[in-house]
Structures are given as C-alpha cells and as structure tokens.
Write a structure and sequence with these properties.
binds zinc ion, 414 residues, 7-stranded antiparallel beta sheet, Glutaredoxin, 5-stranded mixed beta sheet, 23% strand, alpha+beta, Immunoglobulin-like, 12 strands
C-alpha cells in the first residue's frame, strides 16, 4: 500500500508548476531512474543534495488509461534525511495490474529542512515486458485509430495474418454496428498460454487472453501453430475493446448478452458446437431468459456455452431485423445511463421481456427444422445436413477450452 503522510502539503504542491516550486539551486537532483521488473514491480530511485538536510521526498505518478477523473497518485520514498540522499520507492504491481506497454508519467517532489522545494520535470515510464524481443507491426485504420501488434515468435506472415484479421474485423464492426477504435490499441501476442501467464501478477491456470479495456490493450497467448483459433480469439477481444471505447461512461454499462453477443457476432459464423447447444435448447424448450443473460453467465459449462450461443443469436436477431443504426442508438443510450429496459423501449419499442418473446418467436421455425431432422437421423440420412456426431464430439473439447478462455477473458471486459 502506498504510504501517505503529509497529504495537506501535497495537494498544494500539485497545483504549482515546476518553475514555481524550484527554490533556486538550493536542491539539486544528481540522479533519477526507474527500473521495471515486469510484471511484479517498478523501482524508482532518486539522488539529491542540498546545503541542509532533505526531509521529504515523494513520487507522484499518473497512469495513462481511460478514466472518469484525472488521478494523480503519491508514493512516499524510503530514505534517510541528510544533505545528500539516496531515495527509492517500490511500486508493487499487485496493487495496480498494469498491462504490458502501459505508460506512467511520474515526477519527484523534494523538500529540505528550510522549506525549499523542488519538483522534477515529468518523465514517462514504459512498463514493458522486456523478457522477450518484441517485433511490432502498426496499421492505421480508416477512421483514424491505430492498431499496433507486438509479437516475438512466428514469422512476418504470422503477424500479418493476425493484423489482416483485425483490420477485417474492425471494418465489419464499423459496417455492422457503426463503431470504430477511438484510441490507439496495443495487442501483445505471447507465444503460448504459459508465456502469457508469466506476464500476469495473478495468473489463472486456464487464462488464454486478457483484455485490459481501460488501457485499450490486449494480451493473448497464440502459438503460431494455432493461427485460426488465434484469429477468432483475438477478434473477440478486439471487439470488446472497441465497443467499450465507444460506450465508456460512468453512467451506464452493457448487458452481458449484448457485450458478449457483439464480440461473438464479429468473430464470424457461430461455432458449430455452440450452434448445436442452441439447437438443442430450442428443441427442448430450455433456453435461458434474456433477463438472466444480462448478468454474469452460469459457471456450469453447458449453461455458459448456451449463454454465449444465445448472446450471438440475440445480436444477430437485432441486427438482421432492425439494422446498424438502431444498434448504435442502443449503445449510445445505454452509455448515457438508461436502464436496459428503457434503452430497448426507446430504440426498438420493446423491453427485455419483449425482446425475449419476439426473438423466441423467430426461433419457432428453427425448432421445426431441428425436430424434423430427428426421424431423418434415425434413418441414417440426416448427417449431410446436420453436423456429424463424431465431429461434434471432437469439437466439444475445443469448445470447452474456448469457453474457459472466454470466461476468463470476459471477466476483465465486463
Ligand atoms: Zn467475451
């Protein structure tokens, strides 16, 4: 925890510019440095001297991220008062959870026993993961946003394919929903899940990707051999980032089915295994209510998979029937702080329960198709039009991994 002692003076000092607080040459800074030990800490060091004892040394810092208010934090340096001092302050990242590439502006405030004060010029600390030799690829998206991809394993074609997938996904997002990146986005591609976990303070065993929405940063583990999976997973997180940028507000948030549904929809066609869960729930009348899907999904695997599949289907229903403009209106109204029911009524004329009923109505014909296939299957002729059982079983393991990953990464984006 950051030590805070002389809060009264610090508030005043923050209002003063460096030129105003520099008291002649009474206090001289002889060295200032920061050492990043990614991901656990950053150690700030300072050496200074005066004609009299230096009695107060503090570090002020500001994290560059989306915030509702400007926040300046304060750390109390460890040092022994003397006319020549060596001070340091250790930032324990268990209290911060900074992503790779985060930027932090910092400056020192020094005071001696005669009340002379000196403030150093602001400097920027880059919280880089220098355990790897990163390469980078930057692309400017049409609306003016910038996308930078960092990677260290896999050739240029690997990163280019991922970048192409991102660009196509962003273009689709703009076309379907009307949203586009408003802040530069950084994407760190780790070469494996275990490498990614090594970059996290509190790694979760099965975490395959993390979206740091406030930082517009994604960290994800994609082995070059799993490019297809990686493209979908990356696009999912990228969609979360862009949607969160567009809806960032202290007043409102998105219902989970909408947040996850947009990310799923922008990935492309619904995964066949998830589709089979949806079909089964429709035919057995076991769909989850839309109202339940507004809040965190069930921890049970099958229900969670169905929740994602339904979220996709709900977004598909809204876009197919009411179009892009209405979806953008919905996001805008939710951003302004309306309740989910109010926002839906204002844009579409129905509330959550109304959406539930209308959406289920469109699934009736879907159900009839699924049911009609049952006798065909018993005759052994339905496999041409329905996913083969073996393929479904084989894909189930993949879906489980996908769900686990989404569940972990979704937590950071909700
Ligand atoms: Zn998600």
């Amino acid at each position: 925890m950051i030590k805070r002692i002389f809060l009264i003076t610090s508030a005043l000092l923050l209002l003063l510019s460096p030129s105003l607080v520099a008291a002649g040459d009474d206090i001289v800074v002889t060295a200032s440095d920061v050492e990043v030990n990614f991901p656990s800490q950053a150690v700030f060091t300072l050496e200074a001297e005066s004609y009299i004892d230096i009695v107060d040394v503090r570090l002020y810092y500001q994290v560059d991220k989306m915030n509702y208010v400007e926040v300046v934090s304060e750390g109390w340096a460890d040092f022994t008062p003397a006319s020549m001092i060596e001070a340091n302050w250790v930032w324990d990242m268990r209290n911060a959870s900074l992503p790779p590439g985060a930027e932090v502006t910092y400056w020192w405030m020094i005071e001696d026993a005669d009340g002379n004060r000196f403030e150093t010029s602001p400097e920027i600390m880059h919280f880089d993961d220098d355990r790897y030799l990163w390469q980078s690829l930057t692309s400017t998206v049409p609306q003016g946003g910038e996308l930078t991809l960092f990677w260290y394993e896999g050739g240029d074609s690997f990163s280019q394919e991922l970048m192409d997938a991102c660009e196509e996904g962003l273009a689709r997002l703009t076309q379907d929903i009307g949203t586009y990146p408003e802040r530069p986005i950084k994407i760190y591609i780790y070469a494996s899940t275990s490498d990614l976990q090594g970059a996290m303070i509190f790694p979760q065993e099965w975490s395959g990707g993390v979206a740091f929405t406030a930082f517009s940063t994604i960290a994800i583990g994609i082995p070059p051999s799993e490019l297809d999976w990686g493209k979908r997973a990356l696009l999912h997180e990228l969609t979360h980032l862009v949607v969160h940028q567009a809806t960032f507000s202290p007043y409102g948030q998105l219902p989970l089915w909408l947040d996850e549904g947009l990310a799923m929809y922008n990935e492309g066609e619904l995964d066949p295994v998830l589709r089979s869960y949806l079909e089964e729930a429709i035919s057995e009348d076991e769909l989850i209510s839309v109202r339940s899907l507004c809040s965190p999904f069930s921890a049970e695997t099958e229900k969670a998979l169905l929740s994602y599949a339904q979220s996709y289907s709900l977004v598909e229903y809204l876009l197919d029937n009411y179009g892009q403009d209405s979806m953008l209106d919905l996001l805008t109204i939710l951003k302004q702080g309306s309740t989910y029911d109010e926002a839906l009524i204002e844009v579409y004329g129905f509330d959550i329960d109304g959406l539930d009923a209308l959406w289920r109505g469109t699934l009736a014909s879907y159900t009839a198709i699924v049911v009609s296939r049952i006798p065909e299957q018993s005759e052994g002729t339905a496999w041409q039009s329905h996913p083969a059982l073996i393929a479904v079983l084989a894909a189930l393991a993949t879906a489980l991994a996908l769900w686990i990953w989404r569940r972990s990464s979704g937590k950071s984006t909700i």
